[in-house]
Specification:
9 strands, disordered N terminus, three-stranded antiparallel beta sheet
Length: 116
């Protein structure tokens, strides 16, 4: 017959009793998970603040990329890449996870792109 209160119970058969602390263990596990989640959130907020605190020149440098053909661009986890079909490329940190690209024709299908 279970005897107890709160999160702990005792299961007794005859004179043999076993204590069951499942409720207490669950609360301890949940508390530990919440503590870890809070730490991860604090680390993420700190990293985002460091990105925002950078000077504009450091956060968004300007690159000139000359391509002999078309180019593509992509951003993933604050790293942006512009690639030319001829193999040239520029990679840069992009806190906003986006780029500004101003392209000009150089003739014969070639382009000059100002990337920031």
């Amino acid at each position: 017959v279970p005897v107890g209160y709160g999160g702990a119970t005792q299961n007794c058969v005859g004179s043999q009793c076993n204590q069951n602390n499942f409720g207490r263990r669950k609360r301890a596990i949940v508390a530990k998970l919440l503590e870890e989640a809070e730490k991860i959130t604090e680390d993420l907020v700190k990293a985002e603040q460091e990105i925002q605190d950078r000077s504009p020149a450091e956060a968004s440098p300007v690159h000139i990329l000359e391509c002999s053909g078309p180019s593509t661009s992509s951003c993933n986890n604050h790293l942006c890449t512009v690639k030319c079909s001829d193999g040239k490329k520029v990679e840069m940190e992009c806190p906003s996870n986006s780029l500004d690209i101003l392209s000009s024709s150089l003739g014969d299908g070639a382009t000059s792109s100002k990337v920031s």
